[in-house]
Amino acid sequence: MNNLFSLDGKTVLVTGASSGLGRQFAKTLAAAGANVVAVARRRERLDELCNEITAAGGRALGLRADVTDVRAVRRAFDEAERQFGVVSVVINNAGISRPAPLRSTSEEDWDAVIEANLKAVWLVATEASRRMVNKNQGGSIINIASILAFGAAKALGPYMASKAGVVQLTRSMALEWAGDNIRVNAIAPGYFPTEMTGNFFSTPKGLEMIARIPQRRIGDPTDLNGPLLLLASDASSYMTGSVVTVDGGHLCHAL
Predict the structure, then answer these.
(1) Is 159 one of the annotated active-site residues of the chain?
(2) pLDDT tens-digit profile of 206-217?
(3) What is the mean pLDDT of residues 57-71?
(4) pTM metric for this prediction
(5) Rounded CA gap, 163 and 146, in Å?
(6) CA–CA separation, 149 and 247 (whole Å)
(7) N or C, fewer C-beta in 10 Å, the chain?
(8) Domain tally for the chain?
């Protein structure tokens, strides 16, 4: 049982790893024994993360890449393989939001959100799956969705559309790749403190929202450690196409 969630010997690639939940994911996976490949656009932040992981006895490689660019994605996987071997676990975490009412949303902002939140998931996951198949090995792909894939909120139209797309894309990947022993699942977090949410939770509207969460609190990033390790490890060997909601019961209440 002690080894149920072990990732010893596995190479894990995490996108959007330089801050927020991605940073927490990278540290958690490294602590479970994985070789962590941290991918993001901010080099300095990646260096800080990797230094922190190695100081704690883990193994990490930081790669600067734009995951909406297929050539950059391929280069990242090439370098990961040179350093640690074939990536067997992927955490598709990179994402952005451009809050605005729909009639005020520019085409540029719409495209930026859909590319970062949905297209990048497709690019990274398909590249990982091809390499897993070529090496005749299975793996686990975890796409980070959101409870906003299932509910509605104002001024977040492109974000909600992209995350709903991530949920359906996850199911499509799971169905197509199950025969290759590649599991594809999603985590749908509720509200967590990140750079994207800023100081919203200390505002009157933020406090009102917290009051509607059955557990009466927002999430702590460590609340995602368990679901993450479950889906990344062999403990979830018979799970694919699942969406694990981590939201303090928020979806039990109207958003």
Answers:
(1) yes
(2) 888 899 999 999
(3) 98
(4) 0.96
(5) 6
(6) 13
(7) N
(8) 1
